[in-house]
Design a protein that fits this description.
By secondary structure, this protein is α+β, with helices and mostly antiparallel strands. Helix 6 runs parallel beside helix 8, helix 10 packs parallel to helix 12 and helix 12 runs parallel beside helix 13. The longest helix is centred in the middle third of the chain and has 31 residues. The protein starts with a helix and ends with a strand.
Length: about 475
């Protein structure tokens, strides 16, 4: 209970001042330094040691003067002033032992050994830790025992080459000693060292679990360095876990996307761009030849973000791709949407709903038949028309209610035209202190690009434009688009 300990110690120091008894104040300052150093509070440790030395000089207290030097030096070490701190600490340790005192040497050797390690004097550190552990056994002074084993483990990680097996053994032993002694503070510190090692060894789940458990046993002291280190590490690892899960989700969605159709002799070429947002939305795109004469193309956008939305979108896509919609004619867009609407009711899928645009191109007649639910229009850009041909979606949001029918539309596709099916992440671009870039702006840009180079894809130019408007390569929503080129 670090907060309670620090509060009581300050009360003890205030009481010692109030009775105007120098020896009692020295006794309080000594134990203040002890507690502050264990809590890794460098300035407080040094301040206690400095005052202890000042009073000891005035009163002729040789023992307390040596103690004050130890804590003043220890405070400097905690503050990163290694050479200055170590010189003062070693001078204090020599004076302390010169009084004949032996109590607490395991603790002071622990501080000295760590300073050697921080300065790269690893052999001196090892010798100091071993001397301390010998005193643990000869004097049966075990309050610093767990920390000494942890420090030896850290030392083995600084060897050349590092000995991770030995280090792990020391960390495990340190944690076991701390648990046996009922010291959560030493257990946390040993667990921090062990967790870092395991994380480095790619035992990430085990590292996160043991550190979470050790950190979770505390109910106070969250501003002390050890607990702040644990909290910061857990937050960092949690973010890394989220990034890993996000990357796995993105890869899974990408693996479900069809390969581009690039066939110089075929009637249609199809390509796509899929750029996930930072939180992975629920977009999914697909196309497949239903038979030699009919090509189906579709785009799905599930409400919300995260793996739940993405996996639902992939599930819907896989059902279409596998042709497993029982009793449904995939050549009929209205039948496909009605079947998917009934199969994926939001009430049974975490109240996630979706929009969809589904079209079927018939090669011999050059006719495109489509239907949409809750989706915005797709467009055809024709070399013979200055304006885009919009293919509106008139059906309701998918998954809201069962038994809904969807209207179909039909259009002739001119030669050399391109069909663009896209999600709202392509055109709903929020800009700081400026109006949103909307569907109208997007269509104007696409028309201009089509005029500029009718043979080049417009998708890459559109992506660059969206990122420029956003002011970042990371987008707020998924950027998903299919471009079909008709010969």
């Amino acid at each position: 209970f670090p907060d309670r300990a620090l509060t009581l110690m300050r009360e003890a120091k205030d009481l010692a001042r109030s009775i105007h008894h120098p020896f009692s104040l020295e006794y309080a300052l000594h134990h203040c330094g002890w507690l502050f150093q264990h809590c890794r509070l460098g300035i407080e440790t040094q301040t206690s040691g400095d005052e202890e030395m000042r009073i000891a000089t005035e009163q002729g207290f040789m023992f307390w003067h040596a103690s004050g030097m130890l804590f003043s030096g220890a405070g400097l070490l905690l503050r990163g002033r290694l050479e200055e701190g170590q010189r003062l600490f070693q001078k204090g340790l020599e004076a302390y032992r010169g009084t004949g005192a032996r109590l607490g040497l395991t603790y002071y050797f622990s501080i000295l050994g760590e300073s050697f390690q921080l300065m790269g004097r690893f052999e001196d550190a090892r010798r100091t830790f071993q001397e301390a552990l010998a005193l643990v056994e000869s004097n049966d002074e075990r309050f610093q025992e767990a920390e000494l084993h942890r420090q030896l483990g850290e030392l083995h990680l600084h060897l050349s080459p590092p000995d991770e097996v030995a280090a792990e053994g020391y960390f495990l032993h340190a944690a076991e000693i701390a648990r046996r002694q009922g010291s959560r503070a030493w257990e946390l510190r040993a667990t921090l060292s062990l967790a870092r090692l395991w994380y480095k060894q790619n035992q990430k789940d085990d590292a996160f679990t043991i550190l979470s458990n050790a950190f979770g046993s505390f109910t106070e002291g969250y501003q002390t360095p050890d607990l702040q280190d644990a909290s910061s590490l857990l937050k960092t690892w949690e973010h890394e876990r989220m990034r890993d899960e996000f990357a796995e989700g993105v890869q899974y969605v990408r693996d479900c996307l069809p390969a581009p159709i690039q066939d110089d002799t075929g009637p249609v070429n199809v390509d796509w761009r899929y750029i996930p947002s930072s939180t992975l939305g629920g977009d999914a795109i697909g196309y497949r030849w239903l038979d030699p004469e009919r090509l189906a193309l579709y785009l799905i956008d599930v409400t919300g973000h995260g793996l739940g939305s993405a996996l639902l979108a992939v599930s819907i896509t896989n059902l279409i791709r596998s042709g497993s919609l029982a009793g449904t004619d995939l050549r009929r867009p209205d039948h496909v949407l009605a079947a998917l609407n009934d199969a994926f009711q939001g009430a049974q899928h975490g109240y996630k709903f979706f929009t969809m645009w589904y079209g079927v191109y018939h090669v011999p007649t050059r006719e495109l038949t489509w239907a949409g639910g809750g989706h915005h229009a797709s467009i055809i850009l024709s070399p013979s028309s200055p304006e885009p041909i919009q293919l509106p979606s008139t059906g309701p949001l998918m998954g809201m209610m069962s038994g809904v029918s969807f209207a179909t539309g039909k259009a002739k596709v001119p030669r050399g035209a391109r069909l663009l099916i896209f999600s709202d992440g392509v055109f709903e671009i929020r800009r700081e202190a400026e109006p949103m870039w909307d569907m109208e702006d997007c269509l104007a840009f696409l028309v201009a690009q089509n005029k500029q180079d009718p043979k080049a894809t417009v998708m890459d130019a559109l992506l660059r434009r969206v990122r420029s408007l956003r002011g970042s390569p990371q987008l707020e929503d998924d950027f998903s688009i299919i471009e079909a080129r008709f010969k």
